[in-house]
Amino acid sequence: MRTIAHMDLDAFFVSVELLRRPQLRGKAVVVAGSGPRAVVTTASYEARLFGVGSAMPAAQARRLCPDAIFIEPDIATYRKVSGAVMGIVAGAAETVEVLGLDEAYLDLTGLLSPKAEMRRLIGSIAEQTGLSASVGIGPNKLVAKVASDAEKPRGFVVLSQVEACQRFAMQPPRLLPGIGPKTAAALEQMGIATLGDLAATPTELLIGRFGARTGSWLTKRAGFDDESPVSSERIAVSESRETTFASDISDPVELEAALMRLAVALAGALGRQGRRGATIAIKVRLDDFSTFTRSRTISAAINESDRIGAVAVDLLREFGPTRPVRLLGVRVSGFSAAGTDWQQLALLV
Amino acid sequence: MKFSTTRDDLFKLLQAASRIAGSPTAGQSFPGIQIEALASNTVAIRARDRELGIQLPLSATVDSPGSCLLPARLLVDIVRTLPATAVTLNLEAGSQTVHLTAGSAAFQIRTLRNEDFPVLPSGQAANSIQLPADAFISTVEIVARAASHDETRPVLTGILVSASANELRMVATDSYRLSVKETTVDAPIEGSFEANIPARALQELARLAQLDGANTLSVAVNENQIVFTAGGAVLSSILIDGQFPNYRQLLPDAFEHELRMPVDELIEVVRRIGVVAQKNAPLRLAFAAAELTVSAQTPDVGEAKETIPCPYSGEPMEVGFNVDYLREGLESVGLGGDVIIKLISPLRPGLLESADGAGFTYLIMPVRLNV
What we know:
The complex is a heterodimer.
Chain A: E1 4-9, H1 12-20, E2 29-32, E3 40-43, H2 45-48, H3 58-64, E4 69-71, H4 75-90, E5 95-99, E6 103-107, H5 114-129, E7 133-138, H6 141-150, E8 156-158, H7 161-167, H8 181-189, H9 195-200, H10 203-210, H11 212-222, E9 238-249, H12 252-273, E10 276-286, E11 291-302, H13 305-319, E12 325-336, E13 342-344
Parallel strand pairs in A: 2-4, 7-8
Antiparallel strand pairs in A: 1-6, 1-7, 2-3, 5-6, 9-12, 10-11, 10-12
Chain B: E1 2-6, H1 7-21, E2 32-37, E3 42-48, E4 52-59, E5 61-64, E6 66-71, H2 72-81, E7 86-91, E8 97-102, E9 105-110, E10 129-132, H3 133-143, E11 158-173, E12 177-198, H4 199-212, E13 216-221, E14 225-230, E15 233-238, E16 257-262, H5 263-274, E17 283-288, E18 291-298, E19 302-309, E20 317-321, H6 323-333, E21 338-343, E22 350-354, E23 360-364, E24 367-369
Antiparallel strand pairs in B: 1-5, 1-7, 2-3, 2-6, 3-4, 4-15, 7-8, 8-9, 10-13, 11-12, 12-23, 13-14, 14-15, 16-21, 17-18, 17-20, 18-19, 21-22, 22-23
């Protein structure tokens, strides 16, 4: 039996801002960009009372909570603080999986008192960074994740698999990570409105509607059954390289040369990992900061620099930048394991 | 400007300078080599690119001082083909053509605009630190291979160098392995510094030090630049911006297995079996009671395996490693001694250490097998 913990920093971006501006404590604070299409990245719990939430357009947040204080995100600082927190987290367990800037799974299997270990960790994080976090502990990542979310902020919830099923039986399926709005809508059409309903639905019915893979996956999810390991390795679904030019470039020859250099760097990494991808994409940012991506999926997965470069150059020619280019990037995704049965792992540096 | 020297001395220095003047990797370069004849019967050969600058002293008989900028490639190609005789370079005042003569061969080379060549920093700083050249260079040579060549992650293309008191420490990582060498120096270092220096710069420095044979390196560091002086040679380099990874955090606290093996035997096996680990195919290390089987297999190429004694106990375990990363780590441990191999599990990093307490640590990420 495993023991897995999920640690989630409470309202991370806002909390970092409050450390710098303690006078804003207790107020509705929203971290969001200022552009016309900006979205909310984080809202303080006071702002959440007004219905402001992550990923909501900033304009809508302003309407819901006109008195909220809006702060521009300062990702560089968040990254730095996150690094400090994750340094502490890394010392708490042998296997730690960091997700984004503010979440991590810890494999505590074999520890005599995982709860005490997590309390100590929360204490160290608060002491050294001034940030609070919520913790969920369970027999797998799914239980741990949902438990850490259940009583935010400063939550500390420990559940067995059976307890998790009981506690969240009346909650909508969307509570579970991996079940998005489309799946939720399809489930609702089948009359499945809660996790309890989902757990009670025969797998064959779900397979009939969603296919074999998703169908049986849904049944397992509803039963809080999750075997995925806490893994400290990086398993990326895509690999990319990009470069911002010191001065903007218009010359197509120079742009194509830059693209080829990126393709060489990218192919080197893919080669070492033994991975090949079939989808090649380019990213182009013009001098007015407008950003475009173009992609193409080819019939065979590749990782050779000249082949990646050829597709990338072709995509760039088709796109034909109309203004000087500020940034170019190349990305390969759609990895196939075919041809290799191994993968180079990387340190988290 | 007019001076004479020997073909061999000139060629040796021009070759070193052209590696920097002609380096295509650093983007826009300055394809010229600057030659300045000084009154003191020395000639300064200078080259630079976006990151590095070098100045090398050539002993010569100077008839009249002066300086010019010549195209790097052309000059090297000419001097390479010259017979081993005396060479004379002559630039008449107001002219834009250098006359180069060697025996009865005569060349006239158009100069480049000398004003375009940026002034190189000099190593003559008041606060410079003296380091033993041998210890510094051998430390560079041990860790340099672990530095990344991926220019999209500039921080990893450097070597983190720290010098203070009796210790010189260098760290490099390309994210697949991490190499740390701590070298104890006999005489205490006066002053201290820590800087992320492009691995390229340090590798050039190692070459220069061999060329020059100097015992002491003088180092002057400021916020974004470092200048090394070795004998009469000066090498300057930009420093790499950004936070070098906290490498201590990457080293696991504890390992499951600790094995001591003779380096030579293991390197031989790795090299031999590694021949068929092509196209990045991993080398497989299968540990079982008292033995280690090293094998490799590349589809459409072939396969190989070999078993050697190994003080392993516990459940059998198979770990995959990139053959080059493993071989380079073993080579850095050094021939003739023992290596300590520390392992946790097939998906966790492994560690190589020199058994003689030489202060070398090499962390290597495995290749996941059977994905």
